[in-house]
Give the backbone structure.
Amino acid sequence: MAWGKVRAWTRRHAALIDAVVAVAFVGLFFLGYFRGDEDHGPPIERVDFAAAVHVVAAATALFALAMRRRWPERLLILDTAVSIGIMAATGYRHPLLIVTWLIVAYTFARRTNRGRAWLVAGACIAAMFVAAGLFGGSGWIAPDAFGVAAWSIAMVAIGDATRSRRAYIDEVEERARRAEETREEEARRRVAEERLRIARELHDVVAHHIAVINVQAGAAAHVLRTRPEAVGPALAHIRRAADTVMQELGSVVGVLRGDDGGGLDESTEPTRGLARLADLLDSFAASGLQVEHRQIGAARDLPAVVDLAAYRIVQESLTNAHKYGTGRASLAITYAPDAVRIEVDNAIAEDALPGGSGYGLVGMRERAAATGGTVTAEAAGGRFAVRAALPATAKETP
């Protein structure tokens, strides 16, 4: 956190920091340049002219280093022009301007495109090389002229490589951000679709119980005068069916409550439940998955939302076992007094592709959340296990 604050402060005060660095750099340069040696300076007789050359070089270096982030291209050309002017007047290449040129060239190459950087910097390097050959005392093939040109080219190349690397990292980070946003949007869409699918299935259950209420109400009206003793059982059926309808309507409202939108599931698959578990296991056996099924406790009727959630969790878990497993899986369903617990375990195949979309787990968790239960999935020791606990009190069968 502290380092992040320091970086944010330096970004806000980049110009001030550059100015301080420029003053310190030029000051230390001249301190080391003149310390203990009277022979430093341009090889010219007039001392006042030599001082003027140092002043011009220092002023140029200070301005270029302090403002290099704002006008790197212009300052690179300015440094080049002043360096050529000093060489033309004295035959001497000032080392401070050489170092300043390298720093500004790096900044320029890092902040502009490759073509522009090499065009401008290459022209400046060529101009200084020609000036060194024309005005320098060592001639065209002097080692120092080739050395300065080589260092200049290297610094531009380093700046361009840094810019390319930074652009690549920014692009990768942007792609990762977009991928994460897309993944989150897709997960929200899948959750919404799963909610609507649950609601459609519960709608079928509610419709069935309303039909029962309608039939029993008609029967009660029919036997009211001729067989009054038969009205009581019919009204009891109506009461139980009405209670069930109220419970399931509460489940529908709970499932649909949320801000996410989604598309309707166009599937016409009939409503499923644990009563159809045998058919589900047969279908997996036909596709090559051997399931070892254990049931603990006596099976009983469950609330529709729990029954549907349990079936879908078993279905999705066995589908994953079939895709990524070795062809064998174990399924344990425990009917406890207050809950139904599901555990699916399978070995992971060695050639299984790593990871998946994760939307199957999203759907299972949404199913379990609709009942007030939980789902956990864990991969460890070469095996994958899904465990679900769904609250389910005993339900009276009409």
About this structure: Residues 259-270, 394-398 have pLDDT under 50 and may be disordered. The two ends are 63 Å apart (CA to CA). Residues 26 and 59 are 9 Å apart (CA to CA). The chain has eleven helices and five strands.
